[in-house]
Amino acid sequence: MCGIVGYTGTKDVREVILKGLKRLEYRGYDSAGIAVRTDEGIYIQKKKGRIDDLSREEVPKRSAGIGHTRWATHGKPSDENAHPFLDCSNELSIVHNGIIDNFNAIKDELVEKGHEFSSETDSEVIVHLLEENYEGDLLTALKKTIRRIQGSYAVVAVQKDSDELVVARNQSPLVIGVGSQEHFVASDVPALLDHTKDVKYLQDGDIARLSKEKVEIWDEKEDLVERETKNIKWDVEDAEKSGYEHFMLKEIYEQPQAIHESILGRLTSFEDIDLSKYDFQEVQFIACGTSAHAGYVGRYIFEKLAEIPCTVEVSSEYRYTSPSDSTPFTILFSQSGETLDTIAAAREAKRRGCNTLAVTNVMDSSITREVDEVVYTQAGPEIGVAATKTFTTQVIIIYLLAIELGLRKGVLNKNKAERYKDELRRLPRKVERILDDKDKIEAMTERLAKARDVFFVGRNINYPVALEGALKLKEIAYVHAAGYPAGEMKHGPFALLTKDTPVIALAIKDHTFEKMLGNIGEIAARDSPVMVIGDEDKEVKKLSDYAYFIPETLPIFSPLLVNVVLQLIAYFTAYRLGQDIDKPRNLAKSVTVE
Amino acid sequence: MKAVILAAGEGTRLRPFTATEPKVMIPVANKPILEYVVEALVENGINEIVMVVGYRRHRIMSYFGDGAEFGADIEYVKQRKQPPSGGTAHALYQAKNKIDEEFLVLPGDNVISKETVHDLLENMNEHSLLITKSDTPSKYGVVTLKDGGKQIEYLIEKPEKSPSHLISTGIYSFSPEIFDKIEEVMQENHYDLPSVIQKILKEKEIKAVRTEETWIDAVYPWDLLHVNSAALMDISKKINGSIEENVIIKGDVKIGKGTRIRGGSFIEGPVIIGEGCDIGPNACILPSSSIDDNTKIAPFTVIQNSVIMKGVSIGPNSNLQDSVLGEGVRTGTNFSTFSDCSRVEADNGLHQVKKIGVMVAEDTHIGSCVTLEPGVIVGKDCEIRSGRTIRENLRTGEKAV
User: Fold this and answer.
1) Given Cys at both, which of A56, A250, A303, B292 links B274, Cβ 3.0 to 4.6 Å?
2) ipTM score
3) Mean pLDDT (whole number) for B26-33
4) Residues with Cβ within 8 Å of residue A75, at least 6 apart in sequence
5) Average pLDDT score over chain A
6) A393, A258 in Cβ contact below 8 A?
7) Is there a catalytic annotation at residue A474?
8) Taking an 8 Å Cβ-Cβ cutoff, which residues of chain B contact chain A?
9) What is the CATH class of B2-219?
10) What's the CATH number of domain B231-400, 2.160.10.10, 2.40.50.140, 3.90.105.10, 3.30.43.10?
């Protein structure tokens, strides 16, 4: 996920590099840095945080420089671990993407020779190895260096004494941008498109030297080669969406992979947090919007699997509840980790003496500094304003925690836990099967796009999913929708049912199924079009105008699958209505105001 | 130079494994077949790739994205309606607007290597076809040559009696002129590339370029085993997961992140094990086996020369040999297969297969103490109750209770 940009030429180096890095922002990052050649040595600045946090100090304009954005997946984002890295004498600097397999051995050797390391990264060995091999020619030094390292890399190096950049690539993308009296290098094309559309792709084993005037490339046999210059015809936005029309759709389709990433390594042992340190007599979930719905689902999961009584609070209202003697273990959800209301709630919970855990998608975001423990959802960057894959992975984390706690408390036996874990392993594929049915799901949105109001009803663990389905339809399709517990319909909302008010009913074969069938019958009797999402059933087929059956799963896992269907329903309804799906009016991705 | 990859077809002869994903996405050594093709192109400096997609296209698009991760720029064109039979020319025609100079065409469903593509690039003319030898030519398009073997004489699809042992790899170089020829042929209601080739041969030459490099085709489900074992020859040892005490690992074994190999297990390469798997304790994984992500292999189970796709769970004390298990297959304890020379019923015919265990498609649920006899093919979503012995194929969704 990391980004590389390098430049040599006559423009303002710093501006070219920072702008290029910003073009790679959509891939996500948590720290950024830049190194520019000056006559006094390499000027370097790197920080955990945003690209804009790098200060605007003056640096020489006609020069060469490199920049990097890092997205930590494992290990901490910090100023030290950010790229670029410097050698011991401040004369060489590198940025690197990839993984150096044999870095431990090389590092030991270099430390013995007196090199001082400033970070824990594998990348830093490259710059010290380069220094070790440097005898006046950077290119020769790089050739020697890559002979020594094993693994994947895209490396760009700059030196104090010249405006040349040298680069090497192996199994990590690197592309050169060709300009007049200037050259660029980047990990991905979008970083170059503001300046040039002519690019040369490097191949595995290639080494190149870039100066203002020319680019020279050598292949793995060290023969000078010509790599064809290609003209890029697409624009930046297209590239970022990889063939999908919207980020939201792309992110919906990324969910099987996101689930896979979020359970990876956590099923055999959940080591993100030492659960034995805390008291789990009671749990409260606190969050806003879609994350709050994850909390509502979480309540059912915790109560069922771990038999822990739970409450759910909306972040902005939490402070108005009166503190009691009990101090429930508090779990806060925020995709960005920057949601101000949730951060405030974390402080308040702490003030009341609760232990706190944040579940977030962004490494080292603000909320992580306010809580005792953090678990990352590992969903990858989410760009679309409407949360999709982050909801899914938040719920996955809840299952993992609940299973662990259930086992610890002895209320869940090992066999049952194994069955739940097996089902978790199968979820990516079940989501995939729903995505395969997108045309079927799209077909049912014709009616929704014409509706003024839509109801979503569910019972038990799928009641919060009804809330979430309604929220999605409101926020991206601008169709008024309300989620209700199915049993509540006759206590008021029934008055609104007409033949023009579609109702989406969630019917899962748990102990509430018979009751749900009754509710569906009642709604159908009011002439409202009924669309049912749930488990396959003949009776449902008879009663409903439209039914979509999810792949078979245990009822406790149904919210995840049902919700994916509702995401697609919201997406296709919005699409029919021509709405700006990725940037709905009046909404922002991370809400940093109260 | 651009390349067009034809990836729109289902690959019906591989059913039931193509029920939810196209043949090009079927994993070989835990990697979709299509990825081998993309890699072979990128390694030859061909980054601009046009993929013609159709059947289950989102599976392809969500995996490859814009291609950046694979060092390529991938554009997608859709083949919306496929003509009734063999629509390779029709598929290629969809890429017409993306091509304005000489280009390559490749099928997305054969495992090839960097060298295969290199052979064509080194020797090609305006129109060329890459050909290779085959012991079973009648399964493929057979070519005969003229001019001392330099030019294609003619190309016949799947002849009953084969006039030569040279076959088409389906990998071509063409000039954009090909699209005019395709138009002509389509007006005569032919939609396959061999018909277009015959047309060209009447007026022009097509150079025959031979290759002896990797070109492996999986036609039938049991072919996945030899394609898999061939691909496993190229893996190198890399262990990312956690290995408990007293595990023995020999040879080239690749283990993914988040996988745990529990105590007392024995693994002998070439073997690849994906991410997030839970293996053992005391499991035994023998050569030429591929085990994909999120799979669980219970204690005392033996796996040999088999392909196990994602999310499979195999119960304790089971034995799997020369077999293919599709995604999400679950078995109870003492699931047993054995390998033998067998007649397999597939694609409306009987096929003699030398060494074959069983082939079970996705999400089938197998109870405890079940035995499947060699050569049995079980469709997707089947249910086999405990204690059964299965001797005949089961169709999709069939229940053996």
Assistant:
1) B292
2) 0.74
3) 95
4) A81, A120, A121
5) 89
6) yes
7) no
8) 1, 20, 42-43, 45, 47-48, 56, 58-59, 61-62, 65-66, 68-69, 71, 73-76, 238, 242, 257-258, 260, 275-276, 278, 293-296, 310-311, 313, 327-328, 330, 362-363
9) alpha beta
10) 2.160.10.10
